[in-house]
Design a protein that fits this description.
This protein is of the alpha+beta class. It folds into 3 domains: about 90 residues, Tetratricopeptide repeat domain (Serine Threonine Protein Phosphatase 5, Tetratricopeptide repeat, Alpha Horseshoe); about 80 residues; about 60 residues, SH3 type barrels, CATH 2.30.30. About 60% of the residues lie in helices and about 15% in strands. A 5-stranded antiparallel β-sheet has the order 6-5-4-1-7. A two-stranded antiparallel ribbon has the order 2-3. The longest helix is centred in the C-terminal third of the chain and has 34 residues.
Length: about 250
Amino acid sequence: MKKLVYLFLLISQAFFAQSGFEAGNDLYKKGQYEQAIDAYSTVLNAKKQSAELYFNIGNCYYKLNKVAPAIYNYEKALVLDPNNPDVLNNLKFAQKRTVDEIKVIPKVGFEKLLRDFTAIYDYDKWAWFAIGFSGLFLLGFIGYYFSAASVLKRVFFVSMFLMLVFVVISVSSALFEKNYAVNERPAVVFADRTEVKSEAQNKGSKVIDLHEGTKVYVKKVEGRWKKIQLTDGTVGWIDSEAIREVK
């Protein structure tokens, strides 16, 4: 009986979530952006999320000229779908409305090459690649073990070696991406204007002023203060209520 109740609740949640999403789309088309946000929020309240949902919410806030919430939701969408071209494009438009012009210092050398390679896929896909290559390695071993011809044995041995290399690369990439996803803590400034301090207290000297929509990275938390780093390498402390973490 309990299983039937849980199944009914699950189906009901999925139905209402879908209804909320479709209602949000209809309201968006009519230009009723605030009402569309409310409809989309019912989907989030049902513990359902997707890149498309956050993308649509971001579009609503963009139409309402609310920069910080728009960028925040675009960033949420990119967490689920990092290479989505539509989200990346709209995020660039939203960022042009921000006040702060923080330069992005590009990574160079081996670290950049490694990051560019592993970022091609998320850690889940790398893990599936590892499983697939492991299966091919097993097939190669079976072929090597049962082959009578020396030529076939060499072919299967080489294929086993290559599959093993691919397994190591896939596992390493999955671990690297997983670590990156866990340790990277992007956030968006929601305060109209806030000061970044040199210390985790109001008496600290001002490092820089930040305005809504600016993206930062949280490095450490100390009470009501968070140590952040900007994309240009600037480091300081900010009131935790001035920002909202994406993850």
